[in-house]
Amino acid sequence: YPVKNTQSKSVDLSLDTEFNFLCIAMLGPRKNIENTVEWFLQEFKDNEDVGLVLKISSGRSCIIDRENTMQKLQKIIKNHKDTAKCRVYLLHGNLTQEEMVGLYTHSKIKALVSATHGEGFGLPLFEAAANGLPIVATDWSAHPEFLVGKIKEGKKTKEKKLFAKVDYVLDTIPETAVWEKILVKDSKWAYPKENSFKSQLRKVYKDYGMYKKWANSLCLNIKEKYA
Length: 227
Hints:
Elements lengths: L18 E8 L6 H11 L6 E8 L5 H15 L9 E5 L5 H8 L4 E6 L8 H8 L4 E4 L9 E6 L2 E6 L2 E3 L1 E5 L15 E5 L1 H13 L1 H18 L2
Parallel strand pairs: 1-2, 1-4, 2-3, 4-5, 5-8
Antiparallel strand pairs: 6-7, 9-10
């Protein structure tokens, strides 16, 4: 998949929070959205400056889908809505490729997060990295193959994974996730560790300069390697 040289078009998100994580996914077992939101709310419950922007849907871009998606999201956050100071935003509907670039490069969007169980490729991860956005993601499956690049540390230049790596365990996919010829029964996927995911979110928030430096190096590497 090649890098696209797409112009950016601004997206007015009206965010109240200055530091926001972005998650792009379809609602479904493999994307692990429920844990992504739950763990974020637990980690930043006392921080009113941090938000999570969810570019998600249940499968369509219509009004009915938006309402269904909102209801599912409200079930996840219902136990936190009166106690957590951090914010969760729902961004629903179609965006042009130019608007997606505007989303990745928005001044208040600081990192892309994914607690995915597995990816065939990971297009949002690729596009976010190609636009210089720091990444927090499960350290397994397809995306670690392109989230790697050269970076200078001290006097040496080394190749390393340039993203906040979330530890995991491999285990059998649940029966409810089996999808004939796609998610095969008795196959395995990654289960991100809660403590590791929370820790990586916190590290990116506290030491953002280092992760942004990684992201800039990764961006250059991707544009050169995947032209």
